[in-house]
Structure formats: structure tokens, C-alpha cells
Amino acid sequence: MREDGYDIAVLPGDGIGPEVIDVAVEVLDAVTAGLAIKLRYQYHDGGAATFRETGAGISAATMDAIGQADAILLGAMGLPDVRKPDGTEIVPQIDIRERYQLFASLRPCRLFDGVPPVVRDPDVDVLVIREITEGLFAGRNDPVSEDPTREHDRMMITRDTSEKLFEVAFGQAEQRRRAGGKGLVTLFDKANVLKSMAYFRGIFDEVAARHPEITAERLYVDAGAMLLVTDPSRFDVIVTENMFGDIISEVGAGIAGGLGLAPSADIGVDHAVFQPSHGTAPDIAGRGLANPIATVLSAALMLDWLSERHDDARCAEAAGRVRAAVNATLSAGIRTADLGGTASTKDVAHAVLNALSTD
Ligand code: ATP
How far is the CA of 280 from the centre of ligand 1 (A)? Predict the structure, then answer.
């Protein structure tokens, strides 16, 4: 436990990023004050606006500075009309993952009370873990093809990253099991077709053998995707490579109420970034319509991470209080337009803060 508190680097970013970050910081201030936890925020620029002004999505100085913080809280970055010469969007959040080796993205998909279920089985409580430093994104900085009639990307799987990823997955399943979870890790791969995926599966089997208390299963990603929609309650922890995880985590977000409720924690051995799974939503930016809950829940994941790393039970208590306040808000029917409601960003913020104060 750190009596002197924690340094949090905050990168609000573009679009709705600053709006949802403001709410998350207000909620963090409220919940930590009640538990005597000190959080010190250092705000930094980064994203499409920074790229327009300076030619870089994130400066070298900011990249270094955020590595000194105990945790990084990020809104969203990138705008569709701000692109690099090769046609791709600027993605400083991916540069941060690579610089700080944040290999595992934890994306809890849980259907809260009061959120209209979109699938027949409403018992949705799945943790999707997506590898985020290699897989099918490995060649994203490769030069464009010299042959104008073709282009390709490559899938890269390394033993080192895969072992660490699977250890995180089994560790998370163990934690969830202690809290009443199933104790199940499911690998989504394409080992029947791709050599890289057969290799990935082999490493999964080795790590699974070290965790006999957790059940390990393997599914091809196509079959797994269908089961996630038709029978979500059969899953507990799903682990997969970068591109499959990009898609599967959004399927998970969809069955748990949509992007406005989907948090994420991008973790490595020493660093972590907490951000909503959604992007900058330029269509609704600046209109007070953004659902701030995904970012508030990401802030709760940040408190969980601080609790684990610094053996600080107060932070775990704070994370639990934030989730309970979100549950109270949603079950009271206070919902933004993405959930079919009429509440504004501010209305949701007030309701969450109110629920925290009456805790
Ligand atoms: P990225 O590629 O950066 O992930 P994206 O193209 O998937 O971004 P988002 O910015 O995530 O797009 O938005 C997708 C849709 O979801 C948009 O219509 C947007 O308005 C909606 N949306 C995303 N986040 C929220 C939110 N927090 N509240 C309400 N609507 C949202």
C-alpha cells in the first residue's frame, strides 16, 4: 500500500475522449476521497489534434513521461479524416502498447442490471483477453508493397508473448473462480488452417498443463464467435490473438449492451493503460450525448490494477464501489441514447456520483 498515493497520467485524446475522461476523473475523485486514497493526475496531449499541430500523434517527451506514472488513463484517439500518407489512421494508443509491451488487453463483457439484453441468454459475464502487440497487427509498420497488384499483412506469434498472455488468462480465471466463477479458459484460434495458430495452440496447451485447477478448452474462432452470441453463459475467460480479439471483444461488448459500456485494461508486466473500448465517436462529440460508463468502468479496472500491484485493499474497495454505483445508475433506468435512453453524459455522471455518495 502506498500512503503517498499514485501518479496517474491522463491522455483525454480526441472526439468524445475529453468528455468521458472528465466524468471518470470526477468519479475517481469522489470514490478515492471517501477511502483516503490520493491520486495525482498529470494531463498530456496526444491524438489526431496533436498530429495536426505537430506532425506526431504523441511526442517523445509525453511517451517518456507516461512511463513514469503508476497507471495511464486514456480517453480515445484518432479521427477518420486525420491520416498518415499510407492511408491509415494515426493510432498513438497502439504506439503506447508497443513501447511499454502491453501485451494483454482485458475486456470484461458483463450485462449490468437494467440494460436491455440483445441475446436470448442474458447471463453475460465474460472476460475477453486480446493479445495486442503482435498477431495480425505485427506488420502494421511494414513498407507498402512494391507490387501495385497486391498487398499483404503478416501474422506473428512469439513464444515469449504467448506464454505471458496465457499466464494472464489463467491467472484471471483463478481470480474469477475465487469469486464464484467457472474456472474456465477458452482459446479462440484457427489452428486447423494457420501454422501460426497451431503454434499458438501448442503454447496454450503447455501453459494450461501448469494450471490443472482451471479447465482449458480450445475452439476455432468462427465456431467460438457463434457460441458467444447463442450461449454466452457457457464462457468465462476467452483468450485470443490480436485481430480475432479485436472482433471478438466487440461481439462481447455488443451482447453486454454496446460500446458505451465496454471498458478495457491494456496490461504489461510493469505498465498499464486503461481506456474505453470505443473510439472517438466524432458523430456525437461535443453534444453531451456520450455514454461515460465505459470510461468509468475502465477507471475501476485501474483501481483493481493499483490494488493488485501495491497490495492496497482500499483500491479494490473503491473499484467495487464504482461498479456498484454504475449498476445502481443503470438499474434506475438512467441511460444515454446508445442504450435507448434520454440521459445526457452529465445526467449519468450525476447519477453515478449520487449513488457513490449514498453508498
Ligand atoms: P475506432 O476504430 O477508433 O475503435 P470506431 O470506428 O469503432 O472507432 P467509435 O468511435 O467507437 O467508432 O464509434 C462507433 C459508433 O458507436 C458511433 O456511432 C458512435 O457514436 C458510437 N459510440 C461509441 N462510443 C460511444 C459512447 N461512449 N457513447 C455513445 N455512443 C458511442
Answer: 6
